[in-house]
Amino acid sequence: MKRLLIILCTALFFLGCGTQKLTFTEMVDLSQETAQDEIKTAAFYEAEALPGVRAIRSIYRGSDLWPSMIVDVTSRGKTHVKKMSEPYMECQVIDLPLKMTLEEAETLLNSSQYKGTWTEVVVRSPLGPIRYPALYIFTVENVGWIAVNSINKEVFPLTGSGEKITDPGAKPPVKIQPKPDKCCSESTVYTPEFSVEKGNCSTGIPPVIGSDGSITFNTGQAQSKVKYKNISKITGTVDISGLKDLKFVNATFYMVNGGPGYCDAGDDPNPYCNEIDFLETNGNVLTQSTVHLGTSKSDAKESLVFNYLKSFEDNDCWLKTYVSNPGPGVQDATVIDPSLPFDITIDFAADYSNITMTYSQGNSSIVVYDFKSGTKANDSDKFPATLDGLKESMASGWSIIASYWQGWSPDKNQINGNEWFNYSDPTCSGWSDICTGKYIISNIKVTAEGTL
Q1: In this predicted model, what pLDDT tens digit does every residue of 214-230 receive, in sequence order?
Q2: Which of 244, 286, 304, 322 would bridge 290 by S-S if both were Cys, CB 3.0 to 4.6 A apart?
Q3: Among 67-81, 162-176, 219-233, 266-280, which is the least confidently predicted range?
Q4: Which residues contact 219 (CB under 8 A, 6 or more apart)?
Q5: The pLDDT of residue 65
């Protein structure tokens, strides 16, 4: 029995039940296991960390379908994978396990003439005329990039192209260090649980939550049972194929700065709260993404973008008049075929100065909303140049919501004064029967620092 307890306790420790944090090298090893669970042939390119080494971000060579992968690992053993549609071309593949630990490399750095306070470390084998083994490359304040060879233990400065500086009098370039990425905080990837409410469909069927966590809507609404604070990423998979040929039915995916009761930035009778819409639709043709921030309904301002999907091309109820000159805030997203499911990814900048929303499907992807860089539609002109209040609101938590309801079509004043819907065609007039449609959302994940 004593031997069994020892074995059990040891197993629980390595499963993450112990209090000891993973080292950099252990996180790299875990990132490899995670990557190869996704793609068996995944090969390691690099891993980076900030001082304190609370997490790493690693990059792997993937497959023909997904040429590269990002694998984030925290010192608590939590992992997150993002498959990329573009290859990573900056490094040589490194065979794991690493032959030197970060602690050993740091000791060698501090014993050299280049010692100093480092702000970032990356282990990689740079492309270039010289083929190196794995190098620990430290960004040292007021010094530059200093490499530690993991095989022969040599310490030397590097140029920006990854070449050794051979002139002993030359100073290595100083890298301006960007703000740390949100991935390197102690965030957790949550799978929300939802409460559902039936909608106004005559069948009276509330949304159905499947055993896999998917939500199927005949109408109605689903709201997360908890709020999430300091969110850095939200992902989900939507299927609006069941809305084909329907008009004025709206499949949504969004978050509100409130809960457990419902609130939003819309009309009465709901109480006001800030709202960020990742997806609103008119059937399966047009989508809208909107950021609503303010202190009340009268003060609320919105920043919005419209996107038309592939189904727009052969739907005669939608005019093609303005395609050649759609105006600001209207984008061609026809790379996304709504007859098939597609993924939505929402990324928040570490300081909450930006929000991007991306649709992806197979090898195709499009950024449908970028607060800093993208153009906005007409109603956005009163929105401030910064996301005022978003960072502060993150501490009080946001609820995740999906719904399917009757209504919504962009007012022509929102969409640059142009009427995109063909109201003059009698076959296009009137609202479709919402009860004949179906909307499914699945794989919802929230990366955040905690719940409330």
Answers
A1: 999 988 999 999 999 99
A2: 304
A3: 162-176
A4: 198, 199, 200, 201, 205, 404, 405, 406, 434, 435
A5: 83
Q: Which one-letter DSSP state was computed for residue 58?
A: E
Q: Which own/partner contact pairs does 297-303 have at CB distance under 8 Å and 24+ positions apart? A: 297/265, 297/267, 297/268, 297/272, 300/265, 300/272, 301/382, 301/383, 301/384, 302/265, 302/379, 302/380, 302/383, 303/371, 303/376, 303/380, 303/383
What gap in Å lies between CA 251 and CA 246, rounded to an integer?
A: 11
Identity of the residue numbered 162: G
CA dist., res. 331 & res. 385, Å (int) = 21
Cβ neighbours, 10 Å, residue 108: 18
Q: Which of 223, 196, 183 minimizes the C-alpha distance to 444? A: 223
* 3-state helix/strand/coil string of 355-371: EEEEEEECCEEEEEEEC
One-letter amino acid of 274 = N
Please, what are the domains in the chain? 19-181 (no CATH), 187-451 (2.60.120.200)
Task: Please tell me whether residue 344 adopts helix, strand or coil conformation.
Answer: strand
Q: Which residues pair with 347 in a beta bridge?
A: 233, 356
State the residue for tokens 């620092």. Answer: 449
CA atoms of 8 and 416, how far apart (whole Å): 65
C-beta neighbour count of 185 within 10 angstroms? 17
CB burial of residue 451 (10 Å; 0-12, 13-18, 19+) = middle
CA distance 430 to 156: 72
Give the largest CA-CA distance in the chain: 82
Contacts of 102 (CB under 8 A, 6+ apart): 23, 24, 25, 49, 53, 121, 123, 136
